[in-house]
Design a protein that fits this description.
Elements lengths: L2 E12 L3 E4 H7 L4 H8 L3 E4 L6 H16 L8 E5 L10 H9 L5 E5 L5 H15 L4 E9 L9 H4 L4 E13 L7 E9 L7 E3 L12 E3 L1 H23 L8 E4 L4 H10 L11 H4 L6 H11 L8 E8 L3 E8 L1
Parallel strand pairs: 4-5, 4-6, 11-12
Antiparallel strand pairs: 1-7, 2-3, 6-7, 8-13, 9-10, 12-13
Helix pairs in contact: 3-4, 7-8
The structure holds acetyl coenzyme *A.
Acetyl coenzyme *A (ACO) binds next to helix 2, helix 6, helix 7 and strand 12.
Length: 325
């Protein structure tokens, strides 16, 4: 029996030009390069220029993904864009990207699951493609977190950065077994009781302002490793694959310690873990496609490889995806 699969046929990313180093941050708040590197693994983050919005970053990442896929914007009939930092309260950033790419058909919408946004968006687009309603989707994670940071709060401002990543998903017929290319399994969870551990203290309905990011870092860390390990075990149980079958582990790039602790808990070989957080900090929904695009670009991820992704973010939301590239 054949099965419709969503295959990644292209990926791309974009980071704003301006790099903000730990040393520069140490001049702005009471911190040090040593503290940031030891606790997070982060060395640099990129900051969007004035007038450079989330949709601009997203469009550049999408163009690179289309180029690598050998496709034109008009080949796309669905855009799902994950962001917690949209250009406007409305319309969606996805429609701004659609317009920038010159696409006038199909559908485009935003999706909000903060740092888990890319896994949520990938899962959503996969359902559209599996149903047969759409053929090719751009799945984008794009953020300008620099705009919602409290630059006086050393506990949060050192952690985040701006960026975008994108993949092109194409519906293809598979055999229905694990040798198929494409998305093999996705798993999403949320638990809204944890809002106060990680949230932005504003919004159109509550304060009529944008607000700033607030976080209880230690608590987030504690939950992250356990939830992420659980949701990956779920993906392994659903497919019958194990840590030994994974060619590349591409986690949400929040913090090197969370990534390493999760990999260790699941007995994933450290040599298979893709880590890019040192170069761009936590870019929320953009971090997984950014890491995917980097590891594809440098020749690590190849066609046929099994790639495991996971993320956790505000809400809490968390999720995992197992794919064959
Ligand atoms: N520089 C120097 N000192 C700092 C800084 C800083 N930037 N930030 C906090 N400190 C101080 C604290 O004030 C505290 O000082 P005190 O002992 O005098 O009170 C001390 O360092 C220890 O603070 P903790 O918060 O206990 O430090 P911890 O070891 O937990 O590290 C961190 C903090 C890095 C935020 C960690 O908790 C973490 O990584 N949490 C996960 C957060 C995360 O990744 N969130 C992203 C969104 S969710 C996600 O993507 C999974």
């Amino acid at each position: 029996m054949t099965l419709r699969r969503s295959v990644i046929v292209g990926c791309g990313h974009y980071l704003p030009q301006r790099v903000l180093s730990n040393a520069e941050l140490a001049k702005m708040v009471d911190t040090s390069d040593e503290w940031i590197v030891e606790r997070t693994g982060i060395h640099n983050r990129h900051i969007a220029a004035e007038g450079e919005n989330t949709s601009h970053l997203a469009t550049k990442a999408a163009e690179m993904a289309l180029d690598r896929a050998g496709l034109k914007p008009s080949d796309i009939d669905l855009i799902v864009l994950a962001t917690a930092t949209p250009d406007y309260t409305f319309p969606s950033t996805a429609t701004q990207v659609q317009a920038a790419l010159g696409i006038t058909h199909g559908a485009a919408f935003d999706l909000q699951a903060v740092c888990s946004g890319f896994v949520y968006a990938l899962t959503t687009a996969d359902k559209f493609l599996q149903s047969g309603s759409h053929k090719r989707a751009l799945v984008i994670g794009a953020e300008t977190f620099s705009r919602i940071l409290d630059w006086d709060d050393r506990g949060t401002c050192v952690l985040f950065g701006d960026g975008a990543g994108a993949v092109v998903l194409e519906a293809q017929e598979g055999k229905g077994d694990l040798t198929d290319r494409g998305i093999l399994s996705t798993h999403l969870r949320s638990d809204g009781r944890h809002v106060e551990k990680l949230y932005v203290d504003g919004g159109p309905s509550s304060t009529k302002t944008t607000g700033l990011l607030r976080m209880e870092g230690k608590e987030v860390f504690r939950y992250a490793v356990n939830y992420l390990a659980e949701i990956i075990e779920e993906a392994f149980a659903a497919t019958g694959l194990t840590a030994a079958d994974v060619d590349w582990f591409v986690p949400h790039q929040a913090n090197r310690r969370i990534i390493e602790a999760t990999a260790r808990k699941l007995s994933i070989d450290p040599a298979k873990v893709v880590v890019t957080v040192q170069n761009h900090g936590n870019t929320s929904a953009a971090s997984i496609p950014l890491a995917l695009s980097t590891a594809y670009g440098d020749g690590r991820i190849k066609q046929g490889d099994v790639v495991l992704m996971e993320a956790m973010g505000g809400g809490f939301t968390w999720g995992s995806a197992l794919i064959r590239w």
